[in-house]
Amino acid sequence: MLPIEDQKIYGMFYSLLLKYPELGGNFERMGAFATPMCELDQFFNLVKPIKTNHDLIRVGGQVDGGYLIPDDLEGIKTCFSPGVSDTANFESELTSRGIKCFLADYSVDAAPVVNPLFHFEKKYLGTTNDSVYMTLEDWVNRSAANQSDFILQMDIEGNEYSVIASTDVETLRKFRIIVIEFHDLHRLCDKQGFEIINDTFRKLSDDFDIVHIHPNNVIKPLSYGKYVIPPLLEITFLRKDRVLNKQPATEFPHKLDMQNVDGEDIPLPVCWYM
């Protein structure tokens, strides 16, 4: 943990980055905070997406809330979707395939739409179980005991790192497909943020391959040395036992990618896949 005064200094610079992403390169002049380039090299080698024996399909329509996932849904009966808020396009399309969806979000009182295959809980996903939060392990065990091969679609505004860190690997392995919107990825540039993000991806990489990455165009990327980092990335994982063959994925944007908000889409920077 950084000393309090250092945290204040970093916080000021961090707030400027959100407004002026082009300042990212100046991290290189802040040795007390900056992530060594050699560590970033290792991270970017870890997260390169692959093309597998499963083509990608778009689920959730042509708007925000639609995601690219592997066409490997046969046998999947259950999806867990925390952070549903007011959009359930992804989950609604899954129910049309007969997949039951468990939704959760403390910020709303009910699922966005009525659907007999929706099961909603007014709770946030977190690291404890109480009146506001529940853990992923507890949610899965209560909702689908003795089952596996699920989908996890998670958009929980930055809490994804603590949730992944606190979830046991046996629970994570129950998911065949995982889609996460990762937040605050510009914090790869500072040592403290890098450690949290890197640990998350290393844990997932033990059992999952990355099969697609798409930047959310609501925030512009920043530059840090030779790397260009979109602060928001939608990343799709496939459990490794479902991958029969693999090769580097090099076609970005994918033909099924769509911008999240009006305006020009952000192509995935080459450093993420080459």
Q: What can you see in these coordinates?
A:
The mean pLDDT is 91. A seven-stranded mixed beta sheet has the order 6-5-4-9-10-14-11, with helices on one face. A two-stranded antiparallel ribbon has the order 1-15. A two-stranded antiparallel sheet has the order 2-3. The protein has one domain (35-272): 3-Layer(aba) Sandwich (Rossmann fold). The chain is α/β, with parallel strands linked by helices and 274 residues long. The chain is 24% helix and 24% strand. It has helices spanning 4-19, 37-46, 89-95, 136-143, 160-166, 169-172, 191-205, and strands spanning 50-52, 56-59, 67-70, 78-82, 100-104, 118-121, 124-125, 133-134, 150-154, 175-182, 208-215, 222-224, 227-229, 233-239, 246-248. The longest helix is centred in the N-terminal third of the chain and has 16 residues, at 4-19.
Which keywords apply here?
single chain, 274 residues, alpha/beta, Rossmann fold, seven-stranded mixed sheet, two-stranded antiparallel ribbon, 15 strands, globular
How are the secondary structure elements laid out?
Layout: H1 4-19, H2 37-46, E1 50-52, E2 56-59, E3 67-70, E4 78-82, H3 89-95, E5 100-104, E6 118-121, E7 124-125, E8 133-134, H4 136-143, E9 150-154, H5 160-166, H6 169-172, E10 175-182, H7 191-205, E11 208-215, E12 222-224, E13 227-229, E14 233-239, E15 246-248
Parallel strand pairs: 4-5, 4-9, 5-6, 7-8, 9-10
Antiparallel strand pairs: 1-15, 2-3, 10-14, 11-14, 12-13
